[in-house]
Design a protein that fits this description.
98% of the residues lie in helices and 0% in strands.
């Protein structure tokens, strides 16, 4: 019985030593991973900043055609008003001149 207890205690001791060795190896691996994790976080933050800047640039690029279209519409409207004014003003002055010449 004592021999069985001694054998069991020896096995338990060997298992504990083995477990401690595995834990030590895992701790070393964790210690090696920590700097890599910090580096990965820094890289992710940098990527997020770059994505934000690109989103702003893309937004500006998307607005450019709308601004160009708006300017084109304003130019066309101004041209149409100019043409209308150019064709109506001589007629208006012609009527005024005719009235002034014959009735005054």
């Amino acid at each position: 019985m004592q021999e069985q207890i001694s054998t069991t205690a020896t096995r338990a001791e060997e298992n504990a030593k083995s477990a401690h060795k595995r834990i030590d190896r895992q701790e070393k691996r964790v210690d090696e991973l920590i700097p890599l994790i910090y580096k990965s976080v820094a890289n992710t933050e940098s990527l997020l900043l770059q994505m934000k800047e690109q989103d702003e640039r893309i937004g500006e690029l998307e607005k450019a055609p709308a601004e160009n279209w708006k300017n084109l519409v304003q130019i066309v409207i101004a041209a149409l008003v100019g043409v209308a004014a150019g064709s109506l003003l001589p007629r208006l002055f012609g009527v005024v001149g005719y009235y002034y010449h014959y009735y005054l």
